[in-house]
Amino acid sequence: MPTRNAKARWTGALKDGTGTLEGGSGLISGAYSFPSRFEDGSGTTPEELIAAAHASCYAMALSALLGEAGVTPEHIDAQARVTLTEVDGKPTITKVHLEVSGAVPGVDPQGFRQQAEAAKAFCPVSRALTGVEITLEVAGGP
């Protein structure tokens, strides 16, 4: 499997410096700063990027498991919320909350919930974040 990459540059001191990031494909790029990360400033954050990675990975993992069960989803909508809090005086990612809904013909709400729970453990990003509490909310059903 391929190795993916991204790069970041930080210029200046922590509180008044600025950063830029770019994914290896060139499709993801943005600016970030202390205010964007720890206050309400404009720009992206590493946590936002983790949330995007987790939501997209989780949606693909759920699609894979549904496919193994013989059904093809019309769509899966996933959202991840990454919580950054202070632990022992250090900023720490402490939680990721996933929300998922979808349209999956031939799967009842209980079957969708079971596959959604299984996808949480199957998703490679979930496995990479094993030190973080990851919760899931399944909205309705297909």
Q: CATH homologous superfamily of the largest domain? A: K homology (KH) domain
- Return the domain count: 2
Order of helices and strands: EEEHHEEHHE
Beta-strand share of residues: 35-45%
Category by helix and strand content: alpha+beta
* Main beta sheet: 3 strands, antiparallel
CATH fold description of the largest domain: GMP Synthetase, Chain A, domain 3
Shape: elongated
Task: Give the fraction of residues assigned to helices.
Answer: 25-40%
Helix count equals 4
Radius of gyration: 17 Å
For the record, give the distance between the C-alpha atoms at the N and C termini, rounded to a whole number.
32 Å
What does this structure look like?
By secondary structure, the protein is of the alpha+beta class. The protein is 33% helix and 35% strand. The protein has helices spanning 34-38, 46-68, 109-122, 124-128, and strands spanning 6-11, 18-23, 29-33, 75-87, 90-103, 133-138. A three-stranded antiparallel beta sheet has the order 1-2-3. The protein has a three-stranded mixed beta sheet with strand order 4-5-6, covered by helices on one side. Helix 2 crosses helix 3. The chain is elongated and about 55 Å long. The two termini are 32 Å apart. 22% of the residues are buried.
